[in-house]
Amino acid sequence: MKIIKHYLNGKDYDGGERESDVFNPATGEVISKVQLGNQNVVEEAIKISLKVLESWRLTTPAKRASVMFNYKKLLEDNTDIIAELVSQEHGKTIEDAKGSLQRGLEVVEYACGIPNLLKGEFSSQVGTGIDTFSMKQPLGISVGITPFNFPVMIPLWMFPLATACGNAFILKPSERDPSSSIKLVELFEQAGAPKGLVNVVNGDKEVVDALIENKYVSSISFVGSSKVASYIYEKSAAFNKRVQALGSAKNHMVIMPDADIEQASDALIGAAYGSAGERCMAISVAVAVGNVADQLIESIAPKINNIKVGPYNDMNSEMGPVVSKQALERIQSLVASGVEEGADLIIDGRNVKLQGYENGYFIGPCLFDKVKENMSIYKEEIFGPVLSIVRAENYDEALRMVKENPYGNGCSIFTRDGDTARDFSNEANIGMIGVNIPIPVPVAYYSFGGWKNSIFGGHNAYGMEAIRFYTKVKTVTSKWPQGFRQGAEFKMPTLG
């Protein structure tokens, strides 16, 4: 059986006595094993990173940008290979995997402009004969701890910008689907990045703690659950690290009485059930305002029933399995609790069985109506293909639900009324807001990040927020003594 090793200094690295199974979620079969690192592997990665950092931090931004241009082309040329690796280990459809790669590519493209993004400021004559200027300098070694649901997109949100800013980078991908992350680094080196500039250390909490505690690590970037994000934030802060930790979500879509119901229901289908709901930006709660709920259900129910559930290698599949048996059992348990607590389960996807894939982690789309705020399916991040419809009497009640939810990643509103949309955009205490857009993930030259319990630390992902996160500002104030200002000399110089 294939053993997935660490990737250090441009080659596989054998380290760690423990291993973890990597599954094909469509079949439930173990397809490989991944080594779980330890303190020794982390220290080796640090040693390599420090050595490469000596020269990379002095490399001109223009040369770093040329690597990014090459990298973008290589990622585009290898899209099919990367998507296949993602789908094999995660389960999402090929098209979905390609889409997530594209969102990562946008950040690589943004990194191509790093010479402009690193420009400092200059002020002449702040005092008599005194000038002041600032510069952005790299932190040193940055670490990225990335989740299973986007094993390509999230790493591409991190290490291209971190290295473009002059840092070395250590990537700790999810042990559930590490292969595509390693492929990203291999292609990065083919693009011209020095070997060892980005190293991959596989592992679990032992590796995470070792990275946080290492004195040479300057920053920690994390995407995952709020429980883990909070832990990483607190522990990293205790070790004086700069922290960017993105956590859980419970994203609401508010559908107003004047909304285009067909447009809203089409948007909900993709937002709730794409990637089998395993997205931190998935819409899991539809807030139907006034008398909209019945119309919405009438429109969306047939569309949900027509969703094609299947393995990634079936080109007709629109929704694949969830990532693991544990994830499947948790989703099934939450659906059962919704029924027990009194919600109406209109569409029950728990009994999906596919011929030839009986042991796969498949669950069909589920739809609840008349969900209340005290129910588990409302309060918890399900991270599966479960959509809850909550009925609100008016706009104020819908807005209150959004504001009182402990998570603040993303939300959206569907309406034809500009005043309502503007008020919602201003008043919702959420990091990313969509107006007639179901999943408002910003483009690469803005930044991604939530509010409340959806983020820990002071910086969002990518965009200028990432440039500020991966650099530190140095300000220089200078005054030069007066020298000799001689005119032109026309006589033959002598030694006298």
Overall tally of domains: 2
Largest sheet: 7 strands, mixed
Instruction: Count all strands and give the number.
Output: 23
Distance between the termini: 83 Å
- From the 3D structure, determine the CATH topology of the largest domain: Aldehyde Dehydrogenase, Chain A, domain 1
Q: Largest sheet, order of strands side by side?
A: 15-16-17-14-13-19-20
Would you state the CATH class of the largest domain?
A: Alpha Beta
Output the number of helix runs: 16
**Radius of gyration from the alpha-carbon trace, in angstroms:** 26 Å
CATH architectural name of the largest domain: 3-Layer(aba) Sandwich
DSSP helix fraction? 25-40%
Beta content comes to 15-25%
Structural class: alpha/beta
* The CATH homology group name of the largest domain: Aldehyde Dehydrogenase, Chain A, domain 1
The poorly predicted ranges are: none
Mean pLDDT: 96
Per the principal axes of the C-alpha atoms, what is the gross shape? Answer: globular
